[in-house]
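From the pipeline queue, job 12 of 40. The input is one protein chain; the requested action is below.

Action: predict structure.
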Amino acid sequence: MPNYDSPRKQKAAAEYKARIAEAKRKDREREEGGFSERVIAVRMPNWKDDEKRTLRIIPAREAMRFYLDNADDEDAVFDDEAYPVQEMCTHFKVGAKKGIIPCASFYNDEPCAVDDEIKELFASGDEDDAKYAKAMYGGHRFARFVLWRGNPKNEPNKVWAWEMSKTVDTDVIALYMDTKIKDLDMMWEGMDIDVTRNGMGQENTKYQVKDVREESYMVATEDGEFDYEAAEKIYANLPDIFEYNTPFMTYDEVKKVVNGMSVKEVMKERHNDEEAKPEAKEEKPKRGRGRGTK
């Protein structure tokens, strides 16, 4: 069984932020023309009032692969601190169709059409414009990939994207920093967490995050052994957490959403444009005069 003891719990919060900054830098290097090639994770539906969910945080993709490949090496330690969390900045209620748009300036340090629209609305001095601009402000949230125990779809190995506020993220970090327990995302010695929503409405809602105080396998067979087959299936469907919710539209495409089109309509338009492009014809090699020709 791999040794999952991590120096993470002794590290300061500044190093945690540095890891996120480095991940954002890698995002920019991976992207070409503002697009990301990525597997899409299913976002967890919102909690109902007083609902409790039991979740298991999945390791970052690169860390999970390393430990699966080195399962027989007890001294195997993944060198890179791959925190399985993505910081996000998202604009909501964009345009007439109320689109949801990742902020390009946050992820890529590039111009964001929504940010520019917000500035213009505030500059107008109109009260209604200011109200609309505030509704589109970029909200900072965090995301982790999890297994949802006992989910309604009865899919125990399905990868879900758990999006949370900064307050909830801070509560999760506190569990990681707790030296009395193992890191939550350990596949062999980690543990589940219970997340309970209390209260009603956006202003009066609070989430309580607790570990179950019992180490367990991330996935187990009916005999209680670690389920390597299930773990491989999870890995195959596990996106790169640092590409989750990153920008997927150009500035001009986002501008179309601002001006009234839906995100789906814009993406369909892009698809149709790509389909209409003529394919480059392959030039046939010229046949030379071989033996027996005149």
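Job complete. DSSP finds nine helices and eight strands in the chain.
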